[in-house]
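Dear Dr. H.,

I hope your travels went smoothly. While you were away I took the liberty of generating a structure for the chain from your last submission, since the lab meeting agenda had it listed for discussion. I wanted you to have the full record in hand beforehand rather than looking at slides cold. The sequence, exactly as received, is reproduced here:
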Amino acid sequence: MKNIHLKNIKTERLDVAFSNDLKISRNQVQKAIKQGALFVNGESAVAKQPVSSIDTITYDESFFAPKQKSNTPALPLDTLFENDDVIAINKPAGVLVHNTDTNTEPTLVDALIEHFPAITQVGDDPLRPGIVHRLDKAASGVMIIAKTQEAFDHFKKQFRERKTKKYYSVLVHGTMSKLAETIDFPIARSKTHGRMAAKPESQGGRVAKTHYNVLEQFPHHALLDVEIITGRTHQIRAHMFALGHPVCGDTLYRIRGTKPMEIGRIFLHARELTVELPDGETKTFTAPLPNELKFILADIPKT
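The corresponding predicted structure, in token form, is as follows:
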């Protein structure tokens, strides 16, 4: 066991202060607390309890030992745009945006740090430097990353106020009953399935709004143009699942009895992102549909 005093002298809740001090995820701190690996002044810790530099934090070092990363080189960046403030990239499927407690593979953040070492000082979470929005590991497409703190604050405000425009190409199972629809089911994390689920606000559901247009209807699938108005975790996947039309290739949001499409990823591609840059210019970034998804569309039965 190791004893420390937090560097930050102001009072903060324990999970926030400890994660910032050790540069680990808040989720990892909360797990440690639940498993009795963290103490404050000799007493069992509580995640939300206030702490400051005068408190003695005792923790099991082995619990927070970093996972050994593979020796794979950092990923190359498919750059769509770059200036002194930002970089817009086309993220490939299969790449995690930032580290988790169990990940040992190179992440997008690893690549960003290798190309821009100063980005480690940007943002409000040391594990997610420069990251203002995310894409699921199995998804691909446009992401914008802040290279300065000023740009980070600028974009965080835009995303929070829903002033960005985000469009996705999505292939789903089934025949759509409507050619266009706005889905506004509130969603929250399920306590039993490890995924997001449609829940009323009275049960903790957070407002989530997704609009889709059918681009092409196949006998057993539909290609959609999707715009997300809000930006909740797994929003498109959870909304399409709740509608009865899960995203093709999705192994988490699956409807029993639906034949899975084994494509090694989900058919969800962030095609277009429109934002206002810190200099006031409004810019739209686009990423072409990856070849593996083009091949899927070409192989789908048309009759």
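Two observations you may find useful: The helical segments are 14-22, 26-34, 108-115, 149-160, 235-243, 291-299. The radius of gyration is 21 Å.

With kind regards,
E. W.
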